[in-house]
């Protein structure tokens, strides 16, 4: 296909049309000297966007929101949110725009969205801009999450704007183009609810059902079914985060999707040494969003969603509460089941059926492995990978990581008796994650104009389970002098 033919990109404006009260038509800021830093050609292909076209001047302008295809209506989305527990009635896209929706090759509508595209009416004191390092961080970590089979928004491109942006120092500006199954958030419902426009709230819920949970429409109580679906999706999502050692860092209700995709990679990080209290965000001083708190916070956020949706469950407030509480009450068991089944897989024990004679032993072994991890500084990712070697007969690498050898030997003996499946373990325990010290190294080089370390790391984390010769450094724990890792909030 020629580039000219491809320039007829069709963006739907469903959100803008159906939920106009939550959408402020807006334009992106012009970029003085744009340059594509990274383009996700495979994802572009899934969306029917030819990479050759996206690399033309017009394509680059599309990725910045400066070229608006005929019929498209870029909008800033309005939403509210609880940030670190405190309620903000009006947040919204201060530096982002929804360009519109595109049907992917499976016929599914996906949002095409920009971050760092300039101030909007929701910008408050912000400058509406983003810088190269944090946008590349989102690109890298979201691609790693996708490769780990964890639901996430995707990154389509990072385009440097050619404009220096004032942060603690002057830094190169950039715009991230991302793709999501939608940008509906818990905060979208909080915002709609606060307008006291029940017809708007219902329209938002109908939009969410149609885009994410069409089966809910067939239910006797579609809105309750929608809520139950979000509870399940989030229980499963947070369990997956916990299983790979991911710390989101800023689980405000405006950063929690209705679709169940991970969104808004700011001060996020993968744990190196196992630590329930791991916090990486420099502003999370109380540890609200620490690793081990994530399931509790997800449930808290879902309670805020239930409150926002309450009038949809029943017109009588009293009668609306009971089913909401019941639905929310299932979060814990759904989360625990997802986490426990994931842990069984990490230990190669998935074939042991629940309720069987060996199930209690499997459960004790899951508790036991957490005990071993808690006992000393043990690199979480490496330990499970090394246990995979132990399942294949070589216990030395895993054994060499723990302090209490007697405890390890006792545990490993019981575990080996259950005949763990080494092949399964190699498929679920990643060898490669975006380790903090490698991410920092790659982003620092990219900020200085050298994209090689970033591109190499991206290629490594795109195949997280397939161990390759020569990539040993990407499996290693950080050097001792890496210290107490902090990320500075992704702005
Ligand atoms: P986040 O923590 O990235 O989810 O952002 C929280 C809120 O702050 C959202 O309403 C963002 O749009 C807004 N925001 C973050 N950074 C900026 C910025 N540089 N300019 C304007 N708004 C921003
Ligand atoms: Mg956000």
Q: What does this molecule look like?
A:
By secondary structure, the protein is an alpha+beta fold. The protein is 44% helix and 12% strand. The strands form four sheets. A five-stranded antiparallel sheet has the order 2-8-9-7-6, sandwiched between helices. A two-stranded antiparallel ribbon has the order 1-3. Helix 7 runs parallel beside helix 10 (294-313) and helix 10 (294-313) runs antiparallel to helix 11 (317-346). The longest helix has 30 residues, at 317-346. It is globular, with a radius of gyration of 23 Å. Magnesium ion binds at residues 254-255, 264.
Strand order of the largest sheet: 2-8-9-7-6
Order of helices and strands: HHEEHHHEEEEEHEEHHHEEHHHHHHHHH
Distance between the termini: 38 Å
Ligand set: adenosine monophosphate, magnesium ion
Number of strands: 11
Question: Which keywords apply here?
Answer:
two-stranded antiparallel ribbon; 491 residues; 11 strands; 5-stranded antiparallel beta sheet; binds magnesium ion; 18 helices; disordered N terminus; binds adenosine monophosphate; alpha+beta; 44% helix
């Amino acid at each position: 296909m020629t580039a000219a033919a491809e320039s007829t990109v069709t963006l739907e404006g469903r959100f803008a049309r159906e939920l106009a009260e939550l959408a402020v038509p807006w334009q992106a800021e012009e970029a003085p000297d744009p340059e594509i830093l990274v383009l996700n050609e495979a994802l572009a292909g899934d969306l029917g966007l030819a990479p050759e076209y996206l690399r033309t001047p017009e394509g680059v302008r599309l990725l910045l929101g400066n070229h608006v295809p005929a019929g498209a209506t870029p909008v800033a989305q309005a939403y509210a949110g609880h940030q670190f527990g405190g309620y903000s009635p009006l947040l919204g896209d201060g530096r982002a725009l929804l360009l519109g929706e595109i049907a992917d090759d499976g016929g599914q509508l996906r949002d095409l969205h920009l971050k760092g595209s300039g101030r909007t009416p929701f910008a408050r004191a912000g400058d509406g801009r983003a810088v190269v390092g944090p946008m590349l961080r989102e690109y890298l970590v979201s691609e790693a999450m996708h490769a780990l089979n964890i639901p996430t928004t995707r990154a389509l491109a990072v385009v440097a704007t050619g404009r220096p942006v004032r942060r603690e120092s002057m830094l190169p500006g950039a715009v991230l183009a991302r793709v999501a199954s939608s940008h509906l958030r818990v905060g979208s419902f909080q915002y709609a609810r606060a307008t006291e426009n029940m017809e708007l709230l219902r329209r938002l819920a109908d939009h969410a059902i149609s885009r994410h949970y069409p089966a809910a429409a067939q239910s006797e109580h579609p809105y309750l079914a929608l809520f139950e679906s979000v509870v399940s999706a989030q229980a499963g999502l947070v369990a997956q985060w916990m299983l790979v050692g991911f710390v989101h860092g800023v689980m405000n209700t405006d950063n929690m999707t209705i679709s169940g995709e991970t969104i808004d990679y700011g001060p996020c990080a993968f744990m190196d040494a196992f630590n329930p209290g791991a916090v990486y965000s420099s502003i999370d001083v109380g540890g609200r969003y620490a690793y081990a708190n994530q399931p509790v916070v997800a449930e808290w956020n879902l309670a805020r969603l239930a409150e926002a949706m309450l009038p949809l469950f029943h017109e009588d407030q009293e009668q609306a509460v009971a089913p909401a509480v019941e639905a929310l009450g299932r979060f814990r068991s759904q989360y625990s089941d997802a986490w426990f089944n994931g842990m069984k897989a990490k230990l190669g024990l998935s074939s042991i059926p629940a309720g069987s004679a060996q199930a209690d032993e499997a459960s004790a072994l899951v508790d036991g492995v957490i005990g071993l991890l808690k006992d000393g500084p043990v690199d979480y990712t490496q330990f499970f990978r090394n246990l995979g070697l132990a399942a294949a007969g070589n216990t030395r690498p895993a054994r060499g990581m723990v302090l209490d050898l007697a405890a390890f030997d006792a545990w490993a003996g019981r575990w080996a008796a259950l005949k763990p499946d080494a092949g399964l373990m190699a498929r679920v325990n990643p060898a490669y994650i975006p380790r903090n010290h490698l991410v920092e190294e790659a982003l620092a080089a990219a900020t200085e104009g050298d994209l090689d370390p970033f591109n190499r790391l991206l290629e490594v984390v795109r195949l997280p389970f397939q161990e390759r010769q020569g990539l040993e450094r990407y499996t290693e724990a950080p050097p001792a002098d890496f210290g107490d890792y902090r990320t500075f909030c992704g702005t």
